Amino acid sequence: MSNYFQFKEKQTNLKTEVIGGVTTFLTMAYALFLIPSVLAQAGLPQESVFLATALAAAVGTLIMGAFAKFPLAIAPGLGLNAFFTYSVCIGMNIPWQTALAGVLASGIIFFLISATGLREIIIKAIPANLKFAVSAGIGLFIAFIGLKNAGIVVANPATFVGLGDLTNPSVLLAVFGVIVISILMVRGSNIAIFIGMILTVVIGMITGLIEIPSAVISMPPSMAPTFGVAVENIGEVFNPQMLLVVFTLLFMDFFDTAGTLVAAGSKVGLLKKDGSVENGSKALLADSVATCIGSVFGTTNTTAYVESLSGISVGARTGFSSVVVGILFLLSLFFSPLLTVITTQVTAPALIIVGSLICSTLKEIDWDKSEIAIPAFLTIILMPLTYSIGEGIACGFLTYVILNVFKGNYKKIHPVMYCLAVLFLIYFIV
User: Fold this and answer.
1) Which range of residues forms the domain containing residue 257?
2) pLDDT per residue as tens digits for the range 381-418
3) Which residues have CB under 8 Å from 207's CB, separation 6+?
4) Is residue 278 part of a domain?
5) Domain tally for the chain?
6) In degrees rounded to 5, what are phi and psi of residue 187?
7) Spatial CA neighbour of 145 closest among 56, 226, 42, 62
8) Cβ atoms within 10 Å of 119's Cβ, excluding its own
9) What's the alpha-carbon Rg for the chain, to the nearest Å?
10) Residue 8 lies in a domain
11) pTM > 0.90: yes or no
């Protein structure tokens, strides 16, 4: 085993890799309960989604570790999860069964892109500033959802939105969660979100705001309500509305994983001089396979979690740490009764904090150039204001092409961007 994972070459050992794997798992364990909670709002059965999420994370992470030999963990992504629920199912009024078919379609395309040379073409086609804008916009969107779910921000007939009732015990519980997670992060805790959610649950049960669960461990729930639904509805994706959904899911998944891959690769010495990542193609294949499997099980697109850097920070250097994470995800299948205590007051603080972290890409945007700043701003601001990640991307990309054509930069725009602009224009017209 040490030879297969190259412990000696990577200057690591079994103990260090196990510690790194456990650290990564604890850092991202909140996703096991947060993902089903969000998808339940789209109409999916929460317990089935819990099982699908744990299995998709386990399979994807095991492939990442054993095949790609990369110290990255995979699980359904929070931004993708939010887009699926709030933009697609609620915003576009698309049934979750059809939306899951869109996830499967995006996973298949992702697999084909990762297995061919198209990956490099697409990465180069979309300007880095727009990638940063999309990431920041998703951060704002997720944070806004968290603020709304917590009751901190509420509807206001005069101003559209306003401050909620901060004397309401449920709202105060969510505020407590935000404060605790923030303090833990400031103190340097790698598992701040996980601990913050646990402390919020404990306080909620003590105050009677959250019901105490009747059990902690049980046999895994049934996956029958969601299993295979994506395959049965795959024919529903061939229309302009769903094609935009598939593209958005693909875009978010692809660049989220690619970005995390580069960040992790640079930390463990796998980033090459030309900017590529050693075993990067295998890592992307692992994510695409996990997305396909997860959609069949009944959950949204998987992606590489940036929380994996917490395991790397304590010494993880090889894929064995990911194998450890995958095994822990399999063990988590027996803790579904805990879903009853994961209320919106518990998940909202996590959404707010995760959203704030994702917004860090704002600093990377070149705000001094109008032809970049305006499309970037529209991409970012329209995501929360239209309650749609897809429409934010569409407006931003279309504006980018138009402004740069009039700027005289039309030769610098990649043909792929022109194609996307035409497709987005047709979408808005139709």
Assistant:
1) 14-164+215-337+359-429
2) 998 888 777 788 889 999 999 999 999 998 889 888 89
3) 169, 173
4) yes
5) 1
6) -80, 0
7) 42
8) 18
9) 21
10) no
11) no
